[in-house]
Amino acid sequence: MAVIEKVPNVVFKTRVRDESIGGPNPFRWQDRTTQDIFGGKRVVVFSLPGAFTPTCSTSHLPRYEELYDQFKALGIDEVICVSVNDAFVMFQWGKQQGADKVFLLPDGNGEFTRKMGMLVDKSNLGFGLRSWRYSMVVNDCKIEKIFIEAGYEDNCPTDPFEVSDADTMLNYLKGA
């Protein structure tokens, strides 16, 4: 697994609310680039295997949502959750989770995750290609600090969740 210094340049396919559309689904597609998301900002990013999955839904996302204001107080501009899921799944998961602070960033094609070197095969669970768990601080597109779960491998029989959690990130930022 190669360690990279900058987040990869990709285009994320996102959906944004647009009241001019009207009707029950007032959303339109909006391409957002790496520069749009990370340029000129200090951002906390965490990545997880999938929306609606047990650890992701009970611990990973909820704790980042809970500590969001503390991250902001430490100079973080945004907290972003990346997952190899499409925009529709990420939106519904966010609604179901009541996540209104953390930005859920869909990496539907897994391009960002692949270029980060974090794409793993989870076919043993019927998931196909997904993200390995990690978290990082990105400062103006440069990776300042990254926490990668141990045991990175395809079809890993376990789902390590020790260092990409919100509390580890908060402790890093308090000491940084």
Labels describing this entry:
single chain, 176 residues, alpha/beta, Glutaredoxin, 5-stranded mixed sheet, two-stranded antiparallel sheet, 6 helices, 9 strands, globular, oxidoreductase, thioredoxin peroxidase activity, PRX5-like
What does this structure look like?
This protein is of the alpha/beta class. The chain has one domain: Glutaredoxin, CATH 3.40.30.10. It has 6 helices and 9 strands, in the order ββαβααβαβαββββα. The chain has helices spanning 34-38, 54-66, 68-73, 87-97, 111-116, 166-175; strands at residues 11-17, 27-33, 42-48, 78-83, 103-106, 119-121, 129-131, 134-139, 142-148. It has a 5-stranded mixed sheet. Strands 1-2 form a two-stranded antiparallel ribbon. The protein has a two-stranded antiparallel ribbon with strand order 6-7. Strand 6 (119-121) and strand 7 (129-131) form a beta hairpin. The longest helix has 13 residues, at 54-66. The relative contact order is 0.21. This is Glutathione-dependent peroxiredoxin. It is an enzyme of class 1 (oxidoreductase). It holds the Pfam family Redoxin. Belongs to the peroxiredoxin family. Prx5 subfamily. Its EC number is 1.11.1.27.
